[in-house]
């Protein structure tokens, strides 16, 4: 079971917010749960779909990949309807949720093994007016660095690749938790 919440109010775009693509990336899980705890349906114009633990099995185990199939959700798109657990989740996201969306925001962090600098990755395959709009959306995040994923680093089996296939804007954000300890 993958927890999914949907808020719909009137006309407007559909945005999908994803945390927990990797089970040990806590920042995305915290951010999406904070959104769920603070949003009211009246705040939405269109639809907001939130997956706070997209790879729920990995989240429950606090592991980067799913324990049952060692699946990396961000590497199995488009998935398969009758595949492994991870492949079925990817298939559902790409074939059921994504066709509704204009924007997918996928929140990552380094998890246990890596410290990333706060940044946003966006598809280098987007061009023209779509590229300009995607850059504007990315700037609204206020992250200090944003970069285009070029052909050398492009992975069609990633969520970014799935979004490109569907013609959906995608921002993959690397977030870092700020911890303040005071006495």
Question: Could you explain the architecture of this structure?
Answer:
By secondary structure, the protein is α/β, with parallel strands linked by helices. The chain contains five helices and seven strands. The chain has a seven-stranded mixed beta sheet, with helices on both faces. The chain has helices at 26-38, 56-61, 85-97, 128-139, 159-166; strands at residues 5-9, 14-18, 46-51, 103-108, 119-123, 145-149, 169-174.
Task: Chart the SSEs and their pairings.
Layout: E1 5-9, E2 14-18, H1 26-38, E3 46-51, H2 56-61, H3 85-97, E4 103-108, E5 119-123, H4 128-139, E6 145-149, H5 159-166, E7 169-174
Structural descriptors:
183 residues; alpha/beta; seven-stranded mixed β-sheet; 7 strands; 21% strand; globular; disordered C terminus
């Amino acid at each position: 079971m993958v927890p999914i919440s949907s808020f719909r109010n009137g006309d407007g775009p559909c945005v999908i917010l994803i945390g927990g693509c990797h089970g040990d990336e806590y920042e995305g899980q915290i951010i999406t749960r904070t959104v769920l705890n603070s949003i009211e349906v009246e705040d939405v114009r269109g639809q907001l779909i939130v997956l706070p633990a997209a790879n729920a099995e990995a989240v429950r185990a606090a592991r980067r990949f799913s324990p049952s199939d060692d699946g990396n959700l961000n590497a199995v798109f488009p998935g398969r309807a009758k595949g492994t657990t991870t492949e079925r989740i990817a298939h559902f996201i790409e074939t059921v949720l994504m066709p509704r969306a204009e924007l997918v925001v996928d929140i990552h962090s380094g998890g246990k093994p890596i410290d990333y600098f706060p940044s946003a990755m966006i598809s280098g395959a987007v061009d023209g007016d779509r590229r300009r709009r995607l850059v504007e959306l990315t700037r609204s995040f206020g992250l200090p660095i944003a970069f285009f994923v070029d052909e050398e680093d492009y992975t069609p089996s990633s969520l970014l690749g799935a979004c490109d296939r569907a013609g959906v804007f995608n921002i993959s954000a690397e977030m870092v938790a700020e911890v303040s300890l005071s006495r």
